[in-house]
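Hey, resending since the last one bounced:
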Amino acid sequence: MSGGGADPAGGEASVASEWLPGRGLGLDGRRALVTGAGRGIGLACAEALAAAGAGVTLLSRTRSELEQAAEGIVAAGGRADVLVCDCTDTEAVTEVIGGAPGHWDVLVNNAGTNRPQTFLEVTREAFEDVMRINVTGAFFVAQTVAAKMAAAGEGGSIINMSSQMGHVGGARRSVYCTSKHAMEGMTKAMAIDLAPHAIRVNSVCPTFVVTPMTAPYFTDEAFLADTLGRIPLGRLAQVNDVTGAVVFLASDASAMITGSALKVDGGWTAV
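The structure tokens again:
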């Protein structure tokens, strides 16, 4: 007999088995918050979640980018609103995110940064900047959203945007790797603490993704050749590779998945 179904003790099923009635990819009736949503992967995630039926809240520090992005989602038939907040400002996170009406069913904890330097070149400023955004900001955004989810009592899905570099090391990536390894540990611990509230927590771990921000890196033929040589599938990731994973983890199709890392890395970490 499979490990599901009725409570073996004969009691009522837990809230974790009740909050998701189906197993589809549709997100109709759900609300999703996406941080770092003004451009790149964050914007693509917001667009994909809206296309799956969710009402999306786009959050970043730049109102003009957010409003333009939200207009595009609405024009495509989706639902979108905006929140302006600096995720590294914990007081602002409490006020803006914590004070927003209602709750979200999904959080895509996407805001992040990188400051490539070799280990011996890393400055205190660079270290603190990356850790403040990738770890401290992500931690307290998740805590604030999770508190609203728990208070609503309807469960939820938190998706931390990590990286393949949360599982391996990389040249000129010592601080970034430190931050993403921390996010992986945070994801697992959050999943345990939030499971009684039927809140699932997972990470998505992309390899190098082609975006307007990363495209200049790949004009360096040696860097491109080295990168492709580390990816068994032989190509860079596109944003839709990442958004597919995000929609899956946001949806009922992943109802039994928590504390996991979904690697969208073309096999980089399998080698």
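The beta strands are 31-35, 55-60, 79-84, 106-109, 156-161, 199-206, 261-264.

Sorry for the duplicate.
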